[in-house]
Amino acid sequence: MAVLPIRKYPDPVLRQPAQPVSVIDEKLRRLAADMVETMEDANGVGLAAPQVGESVRMVVVDFDPENGDPRVLINPVITKRSGRKELGEEGCLSFPGLRTRVKRSPKVVCEAQNLDGEIVEYQAEGLSARAVQHELDHLDGFLFVDKAGPSDKLSLKSELEELEDNWAELHG
Ligand code: NI
Known about the structure:
Elements: H1 26-41, E1 46-48, E2 58-62, E3 70-82, E4 86-91, E5 99-104, E6 107-113, E7 119-125, H2 126-139, H3 150-171
Antiparallel strand pairs: 1-2, 2-3, 3-6, 4-5, 6-7
The structure holds nickel (II) ion.
Nickel (II) ion binds next to helix 2.
């Protein structure tokens, strides 16, 4: 297993809608294992494949960050959202140092394949529900800062510009 480099905003791969996984093979299993290791190394609660430069519909989510319960979700879909949306603070490993408030459903049900190709249903609440929604957004090219309220967006502007400048310096 290996810790992979994490793509930072505004890397274009983060805006690309990810492709469905059609074959669960050794290469995908290795990517999943590396993503779990990368998430744990960064003390994150979730990581989506585009964040390590692979535009495929796979995420890893730690459903119990205190004790560690990392799960691999392939072709995940949210099948149910319940409760009134709640505002809560989020960060993202592709936005180092940046945090903002995003409205999310407090409870979700998510269906995904596991590495054996079986369909598994996940009932997530609170932080896990937030993580599932955040990671699944990544697969459609949506980023948490897109969902910040207007005043939070305004205060994020300079931090985003700083990340854009850093990225341009490395890749421009
Ligand atoms: Ni993220």
